[in-house]
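Example record

The entry below shows one chain as it appears in the dataset: sequence first, then structure tokens.
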Amino acid sequence: MKQEYINGFICGLITGCIILIFLTKGVDGRENMTNLISLFGNKKIVGKNIAIGDITEFYYTYSTSTYPPDYQRYRFYVENGEYFFYHEKREGDHWPLRESDKTVFGTVKLSEAEWAIFFDCLKGGIVKNREESLECGDSGPWLYLYWKGDKSKCQEFSFESLDKKTAFEEFCLKLKNTEKNIPVKEKQMILKINDEKIPVVWENNKSVERLKEQVNQKDVVVKMSMYGGFEQVGSLGFSLPREDKNINTVAGDIVLYSGNQIVVFYGSNSWSYTNLGKIIDKSSSDLKKILGNGDVVLKISFEK
């Protein structure tokens, strides 16, 4: 047993000496330390293991649940071979803040020189396996770097130094104030019935807000069925927040029933529903032709 302890001590001593030599050899101890990081553990170094051409997207997010809550996000990304910077700020009197709480946002097209400045801010930073931490209640910031070899895991980023982090934040503020901001058109949620686009004015409530979040992940397709001679109804496959109240519906009304069924009226009814929207520019006879001649397929998506 004593011999095993002695052997372990000797191995540890030799390993420690090798690391010490590795760190002290040469002029730049920091460079040697980053070499060690890349050798041991699943960590990568920007500028060494990750080149400027490897980066596809970078997120910097800061938020807090204190009152009043706020949320700031910076995003750098590549699209069709061009470079862009996106920023958004969300503010409100509730938590969590949602897409509808955006108060300031914009997109800036970057030059190659500006993309190089962005890369220089990240250079020397460490990327490691992602650990989800948004639920811990911390205010961040949370930083994620997406690159061609991340394998959907090695994405969590930390700056090389406080100076690099400060330079990055100052660069983002400069870009926010640039006059090259491109107006961002909010995506419109559209309704199709049997592939025919139907004009809709959506309600501004929590149910539609959550519906938009679902549609943002993937298109919502519902197989509808005629019922009662005045409506088409179908299961969404998920639940939405309910704000039910007794409603006297008319042709064109779109409502939520029981939290998980969508109903489109071509006649009238009185029941407890949550309003989702209203079909416009269609007469009662138009709606009866569309909805009153057999089951239909309803599709909700964002306009491309």
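Notes for this example: Residues 125 and 232 are 56 Å apart (CA to CA). Residues 21-40 have pLDDT under 50 and may be disordered.
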